[in-house]
Amino acid sequence: MSNVLIETRDLVKVYPDHNRGGEIRAVDGVNFQCTTGEIFGLLGLNGAGKTTTLRMLSTALTPTSGTAVVNGFDVRNRAQDVRASIGFLSGTTGLYHRLKAREMISYFGQLHGLEGTALRARVDQILQAFGVDKFADTRCEKLSTGMKQKVNIARTVVHDPPVLILDEPTSGLDVLAATTTQDFVRSSRDQGKCVLFSTHIMSEAERLCDRIAIIHEGIIRTIGTLDELRRSSGLHYLEDIFRQIVKGVPA
Fold first, then answer.
1. How far apart are CA 206 and CA 211, in angstroms?
2. Which residues form the ABC transporter domain (predicted)?
3. Edge-to-edge strands of the sheet including 219-224?
4. In whole angstroms, what separates CA 62 from the centre of its chain?
5. By Cβ atoms counted within 10 A, which residue in 88, 114, 146, 151 is the most buried?
6. Where do the domains of the chain lie, and which CATH numbers do they carry?
7. What is the spatial distance between Cα 42 and Cα 234, in angstroms, rounded to a whole number?
8. What would the mean pLDDT of 68-92 be, rounded to a whole number?
9. pLDDT class of 1 with cuts at 50, 70, 90
10. Which alpha helices (H) appear in the chain, and where do they start and end?
């Protein structure tokens, strides 16, 4: 399918277990697709494998076996092309504290090949879109937690990539800031972008995601629209569906 921008193919990541010996299968044969104009939610408990999956898709980690294709590029042998195609925000994404917000976003724009008038126009657009324009000349170390996160997201998308991989992008944001971020995610989908979205906030996933996958112990346990998950589980709220799936897996 030409509109598939993310496809994982039996994706596996194994780590050595130094405490007990043997190995830990953090991701165990994950398969899913994410298409243009779609927000695909990846939900899981801490340690379920979702962040490891996202990091493999971003090429920050190399799969133990299997692979993934992002925007037509294999993460194993076309890593640079994958990186140019994505905006990746993780929980460990940081800012250079001594740079001003505008400088931070501009720097990442330059890393992605933007320059001159086009760079300045894009940075101004992003600053305004995220409500950071009033703090554009404030050093990142002096920004509030919420404003730092907004600058993080802004520098992630400054190059206008076709694929967004967002790991808990509203973490640490107040209600208004989170709403701004959610609106941006929706507008990205409406522009035809492929958005892979991880969150711990079930109500947020209900509002935003077109399809949802629940990963537990490294394995995708279910994939579907919210209506499909409701029908298959007999439950209405995503939180209840999530709890049923996670607790229903044998230890």
1. 9
2. 6-242
3. 86-89, 163-167, 194-198, 38-43, 211-216, 219-224
4. 17
5. 151
6. 4-93+162-247 (3.40.50.300)
7. 21
8. 93
9. very low
10. 50-57, 79-85, 101-111, 116-129, 145-157, 175-190, 202-208, 226-233, 238-247
CA distance 93 to 200: 18
Rg, Å, the chain Cα set: 18
The whole-number average pLDDT for the span 19-30 is 90
Q: Which of 78, 33, 27 has the alpha carbon at shortest distance from 211?
A: 33
235: buried, middle or exposed (CB in 10 Å: 19+, 13-18, 0-12)? middle
User: Hey, is 233 helix, strand or coil?
Assistant: helix
Query: What value does the mean pLDDT take over residues 136-152?
Result: 91
Residue with tokens 């209840």: 240
Q: At what angle do helices 116-129 and 101-111 cross, to 10 degrees?
A: 130
Give the Cα separation of 52 and 62 in Å (integer).
10
Output the CA torsion 199→205→211→213 (10° steps): 40
- State both tokens at 178: 């989170």
Distance CA 116, CA 56 (A): 33
How is 100-123 classified by DSSP, letter by letter?
Answer: BHHHHHHHHHHHTT--HHHHHHHH
| Pair of tokens at residue 100 | 């001003």
